[in-house]
């Protein structure tokens, strides 16, 4: 990464550059799923504590993003999707990204422990460590299972939110974790299928690079099939209900159809039409997760009126 660290700066970094360093799009999903985990828990939380908890979880997510950008600056510079990020673009120095990541890591964990409880803080600390060290530094460049195992990092936020409210872990929080964990591989593999040579140029052993597109298509279908019962099964827990069940059945039926269409694609045809199916499934997968957690929230909102739950 020395070549990235040596990039000349074209001027001082703007506030927006530092915001981008925290991966705001990823942070928004972390905030939402953590908030849902906190709000659907069976224990009420004072609004001030809830706000502080979500704020520090968001800072922890931003810390993970900054540390990831520091470490991955060399491969980010090669990939079209990431070369405009602050560090490879020369807007923020690598050392600054590291400093921001470490500083926010310590601040977010300590303040979450003080604001909520130390179990939630420990889960946040482990999440930052898992994303920055286990996934970014180890798995991402060493195994095609990088997304499968590394997906755990993005699955912890609802568990952290639940722990902020209850001080513990439960079947419900584990199911929310499992929903995100099982969703991550087909979501990213659909992206990898139409990113073409980006991962191979960057030396990232994504499944499309190590095993080919046909194997990747097989894996997308398999993981989507495995995801469906996890998603639908959550309907029959204390955080589920008829509204969630209807949403889960509809979303998973569509996702399965999309995965089936990806699986049966001919590579030559896919090249000719610009991977339209893969792009459509990837875009849908973004709404898929949001709508599941929105349905959890809807059930929790309706319960006081006797309308949610079973």
CATH class division of the largest domain: Mainly Alpha
Number of domains: 2
| CATH domain fold name of the largest domain | Tetracycline Repressor, domain 2
SS elements, strand count: 0
Return Rg in Å: 20 Å
Protein name: Protoheme IX farnesyltransferase
Subcellular location: Cell membrane
EC number: 2.5.1.141
Keywords: Cell membrane, Heme biosynthesis, Membrane, Transferase, Transmembrane, Transmembrane helix
Question: What does this entry look like structurally?
Answer:
The chain crosses the membrane at residues 26-43, 49-71, 92-112, 118-135, 147-168, 174-194, 220-237, 243-263, 284-302. It comes from Paragemmobacter ruber. It holds the Pfam family UbiA. Keywords: Cell membrane, Heme biosynthesis, Membrane, Transferase, Transmembrane, Transmembrane helix. It is found in: Cell membrane. The chain has 310 residues and is mostly helical. It has 2 domains: 1-168, Tetracycline Repressor, domain 2 (Orthogonal Bundle); 170-310. It is built from 17 helices and no strands. The chain has helices at 2-5, 15-21, 24-39, 47-71, 73-76, 94-115, 118-139, 146-150, 152-155, 157-166, 171-194, 198-202, 207-210, 212-233, 242-263, 267-272, 276-302. Helix 4 (47-71) packs antiparallel against helix 6 and helix 4 (47-71) packs antiparallel against helix 10 (157-166). The termini are far apart. 47% of the residues are buried. Mean pLDDT is 91; it is low at 1-11.
